[in-house]
Predict the structure.
Amino acid sequence: MSLIPTLSLQLFKTNPVKFADQLRHACHTIGFFLVHHEIIPPLICSRALDETRQFFSRPMHEKMMISYEHHPSFRGYMPLGVENTEGKIDGREQIEYAAEYFSPTSSEKCGLRDRRYYHRLKATNPWPDDFQPTLRPAIVDYVSGVLDVADRLRDAMCLALNVDTKSFASLFGKHQYNRNDFTSGQSSFDDDPPFWSMKLVSYPPISGGDMSAQNGSKVKSNQGVGAHTDSNFLTLILQDPVNSGLQVQNVDGTWINVPPTDSNTLVCNIGELAEIWTDGYFLATPHRVMRHFSFDNDGASTCRTSLPIFYNPKLDTVMKPMIDIEDLPWDRKQQNQWRREHDRMLGSVGENSFKSLARSHPRVFQRHHRDLRLLDDGRIMEK
C-alpha cells in the first residue's frame, strides 16, 4: 500500500468541497500526491512517452543538433553528466522545454541586457523537426492536457483555502492554444502565458560499471537526481508505468518510494512558490530519483522515462502570502526534512526559475550570462 495519498479528480466534479479538503490535507501534510483523472486521453500520454523514448534512442550527433548549450534560455537537449544537484552529477539525459514566446521583443533576439534578467528565459523551443517531426505535436498535446489538470488543481486549492478563484487564476493567464499554431511557429494567444516548463527525461539503469558522461567524467552513483525542492508552483509528472525510482521525504525525514503509475495518474508535488503563497501551510517537499535495475514487461533492461511539467503563474508574477493560516486546521507534525543550506525561496516566478536553472546548468550560465553572478542563496546579481 502506497504512503502517498491518491486523489480522484472526478470527485472535484461531484463533491468539490470534499475533494478540496482532501487536496488541502495532502498539500499540507506531505506536499506529494497522486491524482487520477480522465482528462488526458491515454493515447496522448503513451504517444508522448513513446516519442520521448524514440528521441533518446537516436545517435548522439542527432540529439546534439538541439543542444541546450546554444540557448541562453537553458532549453534543449542535455546529455548525461552535464546536469548536477548541489555539485553532484545527475545520472540522466534530458530535454528542457518551456512556454513559448513568439513576439520578437520577448525572444532571445532581444539580447542579454534585458530590463529584467529573467526575461532571457523568454524564447521558443528547439524542436527536432528535421529528424523527428512527430515529437513536437506529441509533446504539445501532452502539455495542453496536463495544464488543464493543473488549472483544476489550482482552483481546488483556492476553494480549500478560501481564496478567490478568478483573482488567483488571473496570475496564471491563458495557456490554451492550437497545436497547428505551434507547429507553424505562430502563437494563438496573448504572448504572456503561464511560465510552465518541462523535462523529457531518460534515466539509464544501473549497470555493472560506471557510465561515461559526454564530457568524459564517470557517473558513479545511483543518483538519478539528488534531493531538492522544486522552484515552481506545482509539479505534475507522467512517469514510466513499469519502473519508478522517485522518492519523497516525509516530515519525519523518511524517504518514501513513489510507485509506478498508469497513464491516467499523475504524480504531483508542491513547489516553493506554493509554499510562499500559503505562508508555509503547503509544503515544498524534498524529493529525489534513484537509479536502479529497470526492466520492461519482457524482463529486458531498460531506461526509465519521465515527463515532469512545472506549472507556474506568468513570468513577471511575484507570489506573496495570500491566506491566514490561523484559520486552517494544522495536521502536520514537526518537520525534519532535508532543506538546501542557505537557500532563499524567491517569490518572483522569474527569479526563482532562473535560480534553479543557473544552479543546475553552470555551463550555460557561464557561457551566456557572464554579466551575472549566482550567490550562494540563489539570488542573481549583476557583476
About this structure: DSSP finds ten helices and 18 strands in the chain. The longest strand covers residues 304-311. The CA atoms of residues 52 and 273 lie 28 Å apart.
